[in-house]
Amino acid sequence: MQMRSKEVAKVLLPRYLYHATFSALLDSILENGLGCTWRKNYKESKDGVVCLAEDPDVARDFALNAEDAPEEWKSDIIVLEVKTADLDSAKLEPDTTLQGCFEYNGVIKKFKLYDE
Predict the structure, then answer these.
(1) pTM of model > 0.85
(2) Could you tell me the CATH number of the domain that includes residue 56?
(3) What is the side-by-side order of every strand in the sheet holding 112-113?
């Protein structure tokens, strides 16, 4: 059974979600937002969807294991912290394949660098 965005309200959301990316992409992300690029790191990734994790280490692991990212980028991974209150809940859905992860169908403009 697939959960839809209306059902996200029934899920207790953490205060923050995390997305890991590569320093090489940071300038573009700062200018355009997170999720407004054609670049995908996995073949099965959906167009227009930003993957978010409840745990920053899980987000980092996704970037580290990205299939379609250049190997030289993987030595400089950054984690972005997104406040869930700043997201449009109609665009947020629990990931149906990965527990503790969410899919955001849109561009995220408000985030900060996660300070470990």
Answers:
(1) no
(2) 3.20.170
(3) 92-94, 101-105, 49-53, 16-22, 77-83, 112-113
Write out the residue range of the structural domain in which residue 104 sits. 5-113
DSSP secondary structure letters along 10-71: TS---SEEEEEEEGGGHHHHHHH-BT-SS--SSTTPPTTEEEEESSHHHHHHHHHT-SSS-G
The answer to whether residues 16 and 84 touch, using CB atoms and an 8 Å cutoff, is: yes
| Residues 38-71 pLDDT 10s | 555 555 556 678 999 999 999 999 899 887 788 8
Would you give the DSSP letter of residue 100?
T
